[in-house]
Design brief:
This protein has 181 residues and is mostly beta strands. The chain is built from 2 helices and 8 strands; from the N terminus they run ααββββββββ. The protein has one domain: SO1590-like (AOC barrel-like, Beta Barrel).
């Protein structure tokens, strides 16, 4: 890790809000008027990116084999949807051995107008040489409020955690339906 982040750079980065750094690295965000486009089957395709940082992390060394942990992590960040940004709050459970294993949890997205979406996520993590992990999985909508009341749907995601699950991003692709669609 020292080769990737020289001492001077780590010192500067440690003083900057991590979420701001990751938001900038996530790529440009262009705000446009969102336009909902339904497919022939009435579903609405969706692609969005989420950038989060860890707000708490509790782990337990299971002790049955070397490197086996069970952990609960809390994450906060931003979700970039086409045409709008929402806050993201996640709680997930990790069951890993030497950095490899499963994760499942829930993510709450809250939009500026107060509308919400909640998704259940399930995925698999694989460690990277840099001390983080790459992951992929699936998600499904569990509930919504406001303009997302009655939301149903699902999709897949991929992403990466950096610096031992301190921060990361996910790219989601899927679709949903709303009552009356």
């Amino acid at each position: 890790m020292d080769a990737l982040f020289p001492v001077a750079l780590r010192e500067v980065c440690s003083r900057m809000p991590l979420l701001l750094i990751l938001t900038c690295l996530a790529g440009p965000v262009v705000t446009v008027d969102a336009q909902v486009v339904e497919e022939a089957d009435g579903s609405i395709p969706v692609k969005f990116r989420v950038v989060v940082h860890s707000t708490n992390w509790e782990s337990l060394d299971v002790g049955d084999v070397t490197g086996h942990i069970l952990a609960v992590g809390g994450f906060k960040g931003l979700a970039f949807f086409e045409g709008e940004v929402a806050t993201a709050s996640e709680v997930s459970i990790f069951d890993k051995t030497n950095g490899r294993g499963s994760a499942e949890g829930y993510v709450l997205f809250t939009f500026d107008d107060g509308a919400t979406q909640v998704i259940a996520i399930q995925g698999e993590d694989v460690p990277t040489q840099e001390g983080g992990s790459v992951f992929d999985g699936s998600y499904s909508y569990t509930r919504g409020s406001g303009r997302f009341e009655g939301i149903k749907g699902s999709g897949t995601f991929t992403g990466q955690f950096y610096i031992d699950v301190q921060s990361g991003y996910s790219a989601f692709t899927g679709s949903y339906t709303l009552p009356g669609s």
